[in-house]
Amino acid sequence: MNQSGGTSRLDRPGDWYLEDEVNGYVQGLRVKERLLALQTPFQALQIIDTEPFGRALILDNALQTTEWDEFMYHEMLVHVPMMTHPGAKSVLIIGGGDGGALRRVLEHQQSEPIQVELDSAVIEACRQYMPGVSAGAYDNPRARVVIGDGIEYMR
C-alpha cells in the first residue's frame, strides 16, 4: 500500500498497460501477453491480451476497444441512429478499423455500408487478433471497404 491507501504498479507484479487519462488519473490493465506492437505510417498500433477484458486495440497509446465490452460502444454508436432513421440505406463509417461498427450496421438488412479506414494495418491486426469484434463483417458482400483518408473521401 502507498501513503494514499491505494496500491501502485510497484505493489502489483507483472506487465501493465497504463494510460494517462487526465492530469492526476491513470487507467491500468494487467497484461497477460503483448501480441502485436508496430509503427504504421500513421500511428503506433498495439494488440494486447489483458486479464480483465480480453484482447484490446491500442492506437497511439490510447485504448480503443476491448473484446469484452466492445458491444456497449458499437451497439449504441450504430443501433440508436439506425433506429431513428429506419430507412437508412447508405451508411458511411469513417475509421472503425476494428470492424465492430461495420458488423452492427450490417445487422440492418437494408443497409449498404461503406467504411473508409486510413490505416489498413488496423483492419489486418483486428481481423487476425480480435476476429470476434468484426465477426465476419469484412467478408460480407454488402460491405464496401475503402482504404484512404475520410476527409478526402468526403471531398
Low-pLDDT regions: none
Main sheet: which strands, in order across?
1-2-3-4-5
What gyration radius follows from the Cα positions, in whole Å?
Answer: 18 Å
Number of DSSP-assigned strands: 8
Please give the oligomerization state of what you see. Answer: single chain
Largest sheet: 5 strands, antiparallel
Give the helix proportion (percent range): 25-40%
**CA(first)-CA(last) distance:** 55 Å
Percent strand: 35-45%
- Overall SS class: alpha/beta
Tell me the number of helical segments per DSSP (H or I, 4 or more residues long): 5
**Overall outline:** globular
Mean pLDDT: 92
Order of secondary-structure elements: EEEEEHEHEHHEH
Provide the descriptors you would attach to this structure in a database record.
five-stranded antiparallel β-sheet, 155 residues, three-stranded parallel β-sheet, 5 helices, 36% strand, globular, alpha/beta
SSE inventory with pairings:
Layout: E1 15-22, E2 25-39, E3 44-50, E4 54-59, E5 62-66, H1 70-84, E6 90-94, H2 100-106, E7 112-117, H3 120-129, H4 131-134, E8 144-147, H5 150-154
Parallel strand pairs: 6-7, 7-8
Antiparallel strand pairs: 1-2, 2-3, 3-4, 4-5
